[in-house]
Design a protein that fits this description.
With 376 residues, this protein is an alpha/beta fold. The chain has a single domain, classed as TIM Barrel (Alpha-Beta Barrel). It is built from 13 helices and nine strands. A nine-stranded mixed beta sheet has the order 6-5-4-3-2-1-7-8-9, with helices on both faces. α3 runs parallel beside α4 and α6 runs parallel beside α7. The longest helix has 25 residues. 35% of the residues are buried.
């Protein structure tokens, strides 16, 4: 079977499982949608802006990671993102990925890409990775970061040729980036290779969010333009991004600690990478009551948060609580010129079929959709 055929088969299987993930999230708020799990704190690089690594820690033992994965599965988690440090330094990462997939959970890998080669990519294919994200910080390596396009380009070519999983190349804009044009160069190269390109917004060294300047906004607009014509994707859509671009706060509820979990190398549950120490409960002791309590808890950091994956979970919850109001807010029926526009087809179908309606029984279409997705 050729790579093209295998990719197509896996793409349709992944679409089914991602649809099921969203459907489960729309049906119930009682489980984590996404968990980040540190598999090793050690990293082969030393980017000056990063504080999530060291150069000496041993990898988390594989059997311990199995226990954490099994616990996350028991809590109903639908996505596990393996992170670090550098996850590819874990000697049994393939087994860890396979364990995640054995539970039907979507497996995502965040890596700096340095340790990739053709043989490693093929092993990741066999293990069952669904999605890989690589952050590329600059065109040429500098004193801040070695994650450069110059160093990684050959590895990106290997991924474009051999990877059977989805690959996204992430760059950033914001207060700490003084060469914004490089973000577009990186995104354009990703698009040329048929990979997904995304761009994030970063805080300054003091943790403050600054408005993007005109050059940065122009670069972000051009990066967005690279995905035009490819249909709607949650990977590109964030209704709260515009305020962040302008340095303004957002009104939204962060469900971290309930809908999103960050599992550190010590096995403690935290809200996210930026909020270590809360609630800092061992995963093995984490309960449904903990999920419910922390999901509801107000997070003072939420208004200026730039962690888009957590915000996308919040987007699902807003649709779940009040589908019509949320869809009108996030997807206006008319554009700035007053022209009518339709909801993206995936959003229209999922919200009409799967978002709960108070006091109404499920119709035949809803029952059929739930049966196909194996949802009780």
């Amino acid at each position: 079977m050729t790579v093209t055929i295998r990719r197509a088969a896996k793409r349709w299987n992944r679409l089914y499982r991602e649809t099921r993930m969203v459907a489960l999230a729309l049906r119930s708020q009682g489980h984590p949608v996404l968990a980040h799990m540190v598999v090793t704190r050690r990293c082969n690089l030393a980017c000056t802006y990063c504080n999530e690594f060291d150069d000496f820690s041993k990898p988390v033992p594989t059997q311990e990671l199995y226990k954490r994965i099994d616990k996350l599965a028991a809590l109903g988690t639908t996505i596990i993102t393996m992170t670090g440090g550098e996850p590819l330094l874990h000697p049994e990462l393939d087994k860890v990925i396979a364990r995640i997939r054995s539970h039907g959970i979507i497996a995502i890998l965040v890596t700096n890409g340095y340790l990739l080669n053709v043989e490693r990519i093929q092993r990741l294919n066999a293990a069952g990775v669904d999605h890989m994200q690589i952050s590329v910080d600059n065109v040429k390596p500098d004193d801040v970061s070695k994650k450069s396009l110059k160093v990684l380009d050959k590895r990106l070519q290997w991924l474009a040729e051999h990877a059977e999983f989805r690959v996204s190349i992430h760059s950033v804009l914001g207060a700490c980036t003084d060469r914004p044009e490089e973000a577009f160069t990186i995104a354009r190269r990703a698009a040329e290779l048929g990979l997904i390109s995304t761009a994030g917004i970063v805080h300054d060294s003091a943790g403050q969010l600054k408005p993007l300047n005109p050059q940065q906004r122009d670069v972000l607009t051009r990066i967005d333009g690279l995905s035009k014509g490819k249909g709607f994707s949650a990977a590109w859509y964030n209704p709260w991004r515009e305020n962040l671009i302008r340095g303004l706060p957002n009104e939204w509820h962060c469900g971290a600690g309930g809908r999103h979990l960050y599992i550190c190398e010590d096995g403690l549950v935290h809200y996210c990478m930026a909020q270590r120490g809360y609630p800092a409960i061992p995963l093995e002791a984490y309960t449904r009551e903990d999920i419910e309590r922390e999901r509801k808890a107000k997070k003072d950091c939420a208004p200026y948060c730039t962690i888009f994956c957590i915000q996308r979970v919040a987007l699902i919850d807003r649709v779940r609580e009040n589908p019509r109001q949320a869809l009108e807010e996030f997807f206006p029926t008319r554009d700035a010129d007053g022209n009518e526009r339709k909801l993206p087809v995936p959003i229209r179908l999922l919200s009409s079929l799967l978002a709960p309606s108070k006091g109404k029984k499920e119709n035949l279409a809803q029952k059929t959709a739930l049966k196909i997705l194996k949802i009780d």
